[in-house]
Amino acid sequence: MAIMHLMSFLNDPSKTNYAEGNIKCALSTLSHSDSVEAQRMAASAFARVTLESQRVVDPETMESILFLLEAKDSNIQCDALTALFCLTYEEDMNDNKDLVVKLGGLKPIIQMISANDSAADSTAQMYAAGCMANLASHAKNAPMIATPEVLGMLAGLAQVTEPKLQLHAANALCSLAKDPKSLKALVDANVVPVMIKLLDSPYPQVQSVYATAIGFLALHDDCRDILAESGAKVVSALVGLLNSNSAKQRCEAALALNAKAANPVHQIAIVCNGGLAPLLRMMQSLLEAEVLASLQCLETISGLPYNKTAILETGILKHLMKLMDPPTHHKIRNRALVVINSLVKGAEQQTLISLYNSGLIDRILAEALMAPGTLQAEMMGIVSLFTDNDKLRPKLLRDNVLSTAIALLESPSYNVQLVCAWIISVLAIKSDTNTGPTTPATKSRPFVKAWDSLRVVFVQIFRGAERTLQHLTLKTISRLLNAGNIELTKLILHSTTIGSAIAYLIESSRTRPATLSPQISANESDIDRGQVLDEALILHDLIKTMRTVISGPKVP
């Protein structure tokens, strides 16, 4: 009867659910039969139906498959392993992976991996290794799999000449490297050096998996000493993988290098081993994941002065600027800006001047007004790094930096407002650096031209509630008054709206606390109400004193 039910099921393609009803009972009966032929029929059916339809099964169905693993017939074992592999392959089959372990499936799988006495055993070993890799991909199973016995077996399997066995072992070890507890077991079992060694595997897929695994290992303190001992070898191997024909492999290598680059020595090693050229090629890929992986690695290695120079000499900046263009995906634009920010931050003066001369500022200003708020903050954050340089500040004033920053002070993004207020305040600093035939009057002329716009925005800030913006604006006005430009000084001193707004700010600071932007918390504000009040009183007294010396008609 069981055979009849099974044949009926197999002959009807519309029937796919083998885990319920008569077919479930039939498969269970045949699996547990004393007849080898009946078991062969059940195992073959399981292999066939699971290849066609993967589903979460109940304990009874899984137990039938596991029972067949104990059969003496290698064909039965291979078919049962095929079914087990299919039922545990996909990520959404974690319930099946749980069942295998709960029902004791690890033991027969381990036995089959360890046996290699014949060609039949070799086939079973292949399937068993694949099942082990699938089971290890479920974090819940990792502690049960990461035992000295299994890890030693996987380490041995990882070094055989058969590429599929190497790959299954690599996948299992890589999955275990994701879990902190099983990762410690990998270290204790001395498996990590084997994984490093196999970065040189002759099989590209295996190399790719170990590149991913090294990325996980590099994130954990337990592995850092081991990786440091093999630092040059690991970096060299990963840089080599950046030149792979496989985009997936290139991405995994770049991300692994990014994790390794937490160590400054490895940051330099990536550059010295020729990593910049393939990273540049990856930046120009049509695949978003590949571009993002290369940018992430570049961001990490671009902090060191030596690397900054090397990156600029490679021509990477030109391509980073191309990635700022609007047609580019938002994530890529943002990441490219983050890399540029890292290049500019802490750059030596000559490097900073080279960056300025590249046209970077012009490119940013051309895009900033129309860019989304998150990108505006990154763009103007880069500009702000240039304003700290005394030699470049007058040049920036002659560019459109001031007008762009003023326009973006009215952005709905608090972060954009803040960085633009900072830029304006720094540009207002009186520079003592001799940058050419300029006078206080000519240096401050852009502020004279922009005063009407500045005045309107300054008044809005004073009548608003953002303490940090208010503090920066007060500092800016004080600096402008000390800039030495008589025309600008008169505009400020005799502005009725500015005077009224400062008076309002003083009164409101005394009587009620300013509320913070909903985008920041009280803990994130560096400026308290008392600091704003003190700065406002200082500016009020300065204006009052200067008015007695510099007369002029009242202006708006």
From TrEMBL:
Entry annotated with the keyword Iron: no
InterPro entries: ARM-like (IPR011989), ARM-type_fold (IPR016024), Armadillo (IPR000225), Vac8 (IPR045156)
PROSITE patterns assigned: ARM_REPEAT
Keyword Nucleotide-binding carried by entry: no
Molecular function (Gene Ontology), one example: protein-membrane adaptor activity
ARM repeats mapped onto the chain: 104-145
Cellular localisation: Vacuole membrane
Keywords: Lipoprotein, Membrane, Repeat, Vacuole
Origin superkingdom: Eukaryota
GO terms for cellular component: vacuolar membrane
Main location, first listed in the record: membrane
Membrane topology category: Lipid-anchor
GO BP terms in the entry: nucleus-vacuole junction assembly
Annotated PANTHER family: VACUOLAR PROTEIN 8
Assigned protein family: Belongs to the beta-catenin family.
Protein name stated in the entry: Vacuolar protein 8
